[in-house]
Specification:
This is Acyltransferase. This protein is of the alpha/beta class and about 725 residues long. It has 28 helices and 12 strands. Strands 1, 2, 3, 4, 5, 6 and 8 form a 7-stranded mixed β-sheet that branches. A 3-stranded antiparallel β-sheet has the order 7-10-9. Strands 11-12 form a two-stranded antiparallel ribbon.
């Protein structure tokens, strides 16, 4: 599965044409218009165009075609020529992109909550130096980061991939042409062979990476080079139009190519692993359009050559640059972001794009000579340095804010301990306290502060106690906490891990030793689950078998389990997974009970999911009215087939406890409860709130088991 932008992904930046030289193809501007149009529609109204992200592939093919055509027509003879090529790219692309980065940083500072400053400041730096795609590949595909709001710079991942391609490609083409001349070979044949080899290597790696690590594969330059190479192959082959104008084959090929792009935009979804086999549809569709270049009166070119398409094509680079920051930042400025507000944001996108194209792109292209840029590297270095320092200062400020927030948390903890307010934390869920989400006074702060809440995670997260799909669940860490005669196992996915602070408090009071068996997204059950690749499917299943084997060896007194069912059972959708998951949990709970341990399942907690931004972001935006971040229990409390399995199993040594009344009351669920921020992202409890539930959790476990054996101090 690739990260979705409505869902978390974006279109590559369409490169501006150099000018309108001899052989200029107006249809390519029309093709750019289609590509940027489907991407913008996808980002604004993704449910109407679920595969609009294929604009990525369209632009990559166009870039490969245009750059290779230019290099074949004007082959670099030495490094100075290559340097001039690079400087031309700088002149055409960087002024507008730097302007948008600066405006985005200013917009964040003015409108966005402080909770996002740290991460977005880092992404501003990554966008400035064109390694945003690698930043996202390394950080944003992590499961625990999946609730993070997309930054205004996320769309720069594709420009980063293009710039990396532009850096290497002229060297490769220059070497191939040099070799052809030196060894008296036909340049075209050598070019086709060299580019073909790049295509094969990249396409092969793309298939492998998409199958094994689809999140990172989506952003990787190496998985995308084959798309550029397809455009380059078309450039090396030449177009069929010169040999067969108005030919029926070219006509059919052109419409077939356009249909392939449209099919991808309408039929693909963010759930499909991408890129991979299916990326070939829009890639080769674009290649067909470029190759056939039909001039038949009924060909797509007569649509692509119209003034309207030319207008959007000419402004496609600036449209792409502006639309995403506006889409991310405008919701911070308005209460609702629906059709009317989206149309306004779209209108400003066009206004800013036209102004940027005329006042920035055109002026830099006309009045700044590439040779002058090449001879004045200090100018470029200074510009990059100023922008990087600005973004860096932004980042350092956010770090200082986070440190201050942690100090505030410590002070609040001391105040709460000294005062012992009856309405602090979950105790606010009483009729006496009124609205649990209300801020009691203007002097009362939320603990943990929203800025610090994102780091208020249990130790098991910080100690890397999770098996992960990135290693196919073959890494199986077991973390050990405490020393005592009572052995306790905590097992499940991240929604089990969120209970560690509460259990750790109980362990210290009652002499428990806690061992953790945790896996990101993988519910430990006797049934395979629908992960993105076969290795992860089998790995999660094998992990469950391994855990049960460990329980048989370790002789635990108590096994505590909890899960968020976020992955469907194989052969089912999420909607139809509850029944088979219940049967699978019954099987494994019975196995655990037969080890001699008592088993407690904590019902999955309510959580906002995607109904709001991450809880800290929402609370930061609504500091005076955190109740705006509340929701209805029917929407927030998820299904829990593991609890259903406990009920059906009817084993006195396998019980369940429900803690949702500590998060919800009277049909409402809250993100701030009695002054405590309950979630550190979109679904996981903060360590602060989890720990505050320790006493209640202990009493309920003791009552459910009907025994004080595990609680000698009670």
């Amino acid at each position: 599965m690739h990260p979705a932008v409505s869902s978390n992904q974006d279109l590559p930046l369409p490169a501006k044409p150099d000018s309108k030289p001899r052989g200029f193809r107006a249809d390519i501007q029309g093709l750019r218009a289609i590509a940027v149009g489907i991407v913008v529609l996808y980002h604004f109204w993704g449910h109407y165009l679920p595969g609009g992200f294929v604009g990525v592939d369209v632009f990559f093919v166009i870039s490969g075609f245009l750059i290779t055509s230019h290099l074949i027509s004007n082959p670099p003879k030495n490094m100075a020529d290559i340097g001039r090529f690079w400087m031309r790219r700088v002149k055409r692309l960087i002024p507008a992109s730097f302007l948008v980065i600066l405006c985005s940083v200013a917009g964040i500072w003015i409108f966005a909550p402080q909770t996002v400053w740290q991460d977005w400041g880092l992404q501003a730096i990554a966008a400035t130096f064109y390694f945003q795609n690698w930043f996202l590949a390394l950080t944003k595909v992590d499961y625990l980061a999946e609730g993070d709001a997309p930054s205004p710079f996320q769309h720069f991942w594709s420009l980063s991939a293009e710039e990396q391609f532009y850096f290497v490609w002229p060297i490769l083409i220059g070497l191939l042409i040099f070799a052809a001349l030196k060894y008296k070979k036909a340049p075209r044949n050598l070019l086709l062979g060299g580019i073909g080899l790049v295509f094969i290597l990249s396409a092969g790696y793309s298939l492998y990476a998409t199958a094994t690590d689809p999140g990172a594969a989506y952003f990787s330059t190496f998985t995308r080079v084959w798309e550029f190479a397809v455009g380059a192959l078309v450039a090396a082959l030449g177009t069929a139009a010169h040999a067969a104008k108005n030919d029926i084959v070219s006509l059919i090929g052109s419409w077939g190519g356009l249909f392939a792009i449209a099919f991808g935009a309408l039929a693909f979804t963010g759930e499909m692993p991408f890129p991979g086999f299916i990326a070939a549809i829009p890639v080769f569709g674009t290649a067909l359009l470029l190759l056939c270049n039909s001039t038949h009166k009924y060909s797509p070119n007569f649509l692509l050559n119209t003034k309207l398409f030319r207008f959007f094509g000419d402004n496609s680079y600036a449209i792409y640059l502006w639309h995403w920051p506006l889409l991310v930042l405008v919701p911070f400025m308005v209460d609702d972001f629906k059709w009317p507000q989206k149309l306004v944001a779209l209108a400003f996108t066009l206004i800013f794009a036209v102004l940027t194209q005329k006042l920035v792109e055109v002026r830099f292209r006309k009045f700044i000579d590439a040779s002058a840029l090449l001879s004045a590297p200090r100018f470029l270095a200074a510009g990059s340095l100023v922008l990087a320092l600005f973004a860096g200062a932004f980042y350092l400020t956010s770090v200082r804010v986070a440190d201050d927030a942690r100090d505030i948390n410590m002070a609040l903890a001391q105040v709460e301990k000294a005062v012992g307010e009856d309405c602090f934390g979950a105790s606010a869920l009483t009729a006496v306290c009124g609205n649990p989400a209300a801020v009691q006074s203007t002097n009362q702060l939320v603990a943990p502060a929203p800025v610090a809440a994102k780091t208020d995670k249990p130790e098991v997260y910080k100690d890397d106690c999770f098996a992960s799909s990135s290693t196919d669940f073959q890494d199986r860490p077991v973390c050990h906490y405490g020393q005592g005669d009572i052995k306790v196992a905590l097992v499940g996915n991240s929604h089990a891990g969120q209970w560690f602070p509460a259990l750790d408090s109980l362990a210290k009071e009652n002499g428990w030793q806690i061992d953790t068996y945790l896996a990101s997204r993988c519910s430990v059950m006797g049934e395979k689950q629908k992960f993105e690749d076969r290795a992860s499917i089998d790995g999660c299943s094998d992990y469950g078998v391994w855990v049960t084997d460990q329980f048989k060896k370790e002789n635990y007194d108590l096994i505590v389990s909890s899960n968020r069912q976020s992955v469907a059972v194989s052969g089912h959708s999420m909607k139809t997974s509850e029944a088979p998951a219940t049967e699978a949990f019954k099987e494994i709970l019975k196995d655990w009970s037969e080890t001699g341990a008592e088993v407690v399942v904590i019902r999955d907690t309510s959580f906002p999911g995607t109904s709001i931004d991450s809880a800290p972001d929402c609370v930061a935006e609504n500091a005076e009215q955190p109740s705006k971040c509340s929701g209805e229990a029917k929407d927030w409390i998820p299904m829990d087939p593991q609890v259903d399995a406990v009920k059906e199993l009817a084993d006195p040594d396998v019980v369940s406890v429900d803690m949702n009344d500590q998060l919800c009351e009277d049909g409402q669920c809250y993100t701030v409860i009695g002054g405590i921020l309950a979630y550190w992202d979109h679904s996981h409890l903060t360590a602060t709130y989890s720990q505050s539930l320790a006493e209640t959790l202990g009493l309920r476990i003791e009552k459910a088991l009907g025994s004080k054996r595990l609680f000698p101090t009670s």
